[in-house]
Amino acid sequence: MTSIRISRRRVLQQASALTSLGLTIPAFLTGTAQALESNGRGPSGERVLVLVQLAGGNDGLNTLVPYADDIYYRSRPKLSIAKDDVLAIDDYCGFHSEMYAIKELWDAGLLSMVQNVGYPNPDLSHFRSTEIWETGSP
Questions:
Q1: Which among 35, 58, 71, 113 would be 20 to 30 A from 79, CA to CA?
Q2: Which residues contact 86 (CB under 8 A, 6 or more apart)?
Q3: Angle 83-110-49 (CA atoms, 0-180°, nearest 5)?
Q4: Do 11 and 36 form a contact (C-beta atoms < 8 A)?
Q5: Which residues fall within 8 angstroms of residue 57, CB to CB, at 6 or more apart?
Q6: C-alpha–C-alpha distance, residues 78 and 57, integer Å
Q7: Tens of pLDDT, residues 66-85
Q8: What does residue 47 show for φ and ψ, rounded to 5 degrees?
Q9: What is the CB neighbour count within 10 angstroms for residue 87?
Q10: Mind listing the pLDDT tens digit for each residue in 89-135?
Q11: CB 12 within 8 A of CB 36
């Protein structure tokens, strides 16, 4: 497996390129690029919230690892991330070792994590639940 290392400088360079393309890129992407260039502030100084949804093959428990929870290791003897490989953010959990760039954002106070987000009365259909989650439809 090949890993890709992305520096903060590279993100800012890419953000500058996105901003310069302006009209050819959807507004949400140019807004995100502008926010990256201005420490999380929009064009008129307001804070910008960027949501990242890791879907598909993402494993939430191996993204933000509960390394201090013995149940995690007992339940995942072959899938768990070794405690020594976790990039700790507190005494209970930390990021997967390949998420060092995300950890840098966390350490700089530019990132927050919200776990276990859902909606009331979840539908039992994966496809309908995904639609509800992605569109906010009732």
A1: 113
A2: 65, 67, 93, 94, 95, 96, 97
A3: 115
A4: yes
A5: none
A6: 17
A7: 999 999 999 999 999 999 99
A8: -70, 150
A9: 19
A10: 999 999 999 999 989 989 988 888 877 777 778 778 888 888 887 78
A11: yes
Residue 12 has pLDDT above 50, yes or no: yes
What the block records as the tokens of 88 is 């700790």
What is the token pair recorded at 83?
Answer: 């405690």
CA 30, 104, 94, 96 torsion-angle sign: positive
Structural domain boundaries in the chain: 6-51, 54-112
Q: Which two tokens stand for residue 39?
A: 């420490």
Distance spanning both ends of the chain, measured CA to CA: 40
Q: Where do we find the tokens 């700089």?
A: 108
Question: Which residue bears the tokens 């800012």?
Answer: 12
The Cα–Cα gap between 54 and 39 comes to 23
Q: List strands edge to edge, sheet with 94-95.
A: 64-65, 94-95, 87-88
Task: Identify the pLDDT of residue 107.
Answer: 92
Whole-angstrom Cα distance, residue 92 to residue 97?
15
